[in-house]
Design goal:
metal ion binding, 4-hydroxy-4-methyl-2-oxoglutarate aldolase activity, elongated, Glucose Oxidase, domain 1, 6 helices, magnesium, RraA/RraA-like_sf, two-stranded antiparallel sheet, metal-binding
Length: about 230
């Protein structure tokens, strides 16, 4: 599936106005499981769960597998094919102790004008990531590289979130949104329906906040502005 360049994608531009919570609220209304939330992925760079860093872009997926997986190793390095404006999503087997992403990867991704990386596993070179001011969301940090355990077997294929908490799939080109609240996946085919719901919800919540600050009860404000 061809991904529209981000500078031509009105969805990416529109999503800049919303938080991950706003996106989840809309997806919940559309009955998309867990509001698109991808559990266990938090911000590590440029700062640890702090600041106004936000990433929005289509997913460029990378799939790691154990060395004994029958699929051949991907013939080229995935980082050299990252599209401008993409969010790199790296998937690896659960409970992998080694890191699957490092500082040189972010250096190349940044040069390619990717907007950030989401690592469904461990990454390394934390200070280097922060020195680059490159957004990285991940499960945890590590020190050892992946080569003794894993290989990249596919790029731009659907990948499963590596957790027992959820059954979530990230497809290439799905929108990934990350901020201090976490990471959300917005399926590409739901974006058109979700955006108007976000606008409506944010307007209602803003009115509620003003009313509550002025003394109105939450119940009354909710009935007035959300019903």
């Amino acid at each position: 599936m061809a991904v529209v360049p981000p500078q031509q994608d009105p969805v990416v531009e529109a999503l800049q106005s919303y938080t991950t919570c706003d996106v989840s609220d809309a997806l919940c209304k559309l009955k998309f499981r867990n509001g698109g939330f991808l559990s266990g992925l938090t911000m590590w760079s440029p700062r640890r769960q702090d600041g106004d860093t936000k990433i929005v872009g289509p997913a460029y997926t990378v799939q790691y597998a154990p060395l004994d997986d029958p699929r051949p190793k991907h013939p080229t390095h995935y980082i050299d094919s990252v599209p401008e404006g993409a969010v790199v999503f790296v998937s690896c087997p659960p409970n992998t102790p080694n890191a699957v992403y490092g500082g040189l990867m972010s250096t190349r991704a940044k040069a390619s004008k990717a907007v950030g990386s989401v690592i469904d596993g461990r990454f390394r070179d934390l200070q280097e990531q922060r020195d680059l001011s490159f957004p990285v969301f991940a499960r945890d940090v590590g020190t050892a590289p992946p080569a003794e355990l894993l290989k990249v077997v596919a790029v731009n294929v659907p990948v499963k979130l590596q957790t027992t908490e959820q059954d979530m799939t990230i497809h290439p080109g799905d929108y990934l949104i990350g901020d201090i609240n976490g990471v959300v996946v917005l399926p590409r085919d739901l974006a058109k329906a979700a955006l108007p719901l976000m606008a409506k919800q944010v307007a209602a919540d803003s009115a509620m906040a003003e009313a509550i600050a002025g003394g109105m009860s939450f119940t009354e404000a909710s009935k007035k502005f959300r019903s």
